[in-house]
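Reopening this ticket.

The earlier resolution said the output was attached, but the attachment link was broken on my side. Pasting everything inline this time so it's all in one place.
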Amino acid sequence: VPTYQSTALDIGKKRVGLFISYEKKRKDIDRIVLSGALSTEYENSLISRDAIYIQGTYTRLNNLYVYQSFEIDLNRSWRYDLNKSRFSLANYFLSARYSITPTLQADFSFDTRSHIRHAENRNVPDSLFIDTNNKGMRVGLSLKLSRSVRMKLSGGIRFGQGNFSNTNRVSYSLYLREIPFKRHNMSMGFSYVGTELTNALRLWGWYHLPVARKLAFDITGTGYFYRSSDYSPTDYSVHALYLDVNSYYDLSRRFFLNGNIRQYFDWKFKSAEVFLELGMHL
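Inline output:
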């Protein structure tokens, strides 16, 4: 298993598992897919985690889609001392999507996922905009205005923990296909999160720029703005502002070139990151 900090091999980490899947389909009416897995992880000779993972999907007439998954921890050794129970529900996630009309779609999700405790101490970056950090409920509407224009609006509540109250979340996105030219695509949107201590706003825009038959650039601009509750509602400070340029190119049938450039523009991180990869298809 690779180390948590890098891709170097760590023979002290061991992971073993079993996987099973079941599918039932009734012509073009509905389809059920169930999957289950049992895994165990060790950190040298110390148990890290034993768990059962189950997920299932249900699709009906191409207008209803339901997905759910949950994990059950099998606690032994230090995990039993910590939880005082042999079994504990670790994560649960439910998502449903329904097409009201051919152009209007509604979705709903209920999320209790969180970071899993392992034997190894891991530093987890905190972000208000990471979906897997948001335990709560969310509803959304997606509207297709034409073949080229689609928009989505969603809102939700993140459940408060301890002495903290619930957090409100709103997001909007607009997708434009083959605009302003053929093979050119773009999207833009925002996300807002309001907590007891901080109001945060994320703005982003993306543009797909084709320059040749096999070469295109994906240009993404992103800005994060945070405001403490001690300041006025309009006093936002820039936390991060950067531009990404990504590209992928097949040099031949076996070799490819992948590159990324990120340029920071805000006052704190005025710097650039460059990533270049030359690879071979096996």
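Reporter confirms the inline version is readable. The chain has one helix and 15 strands. The mean pLDDT is 84.
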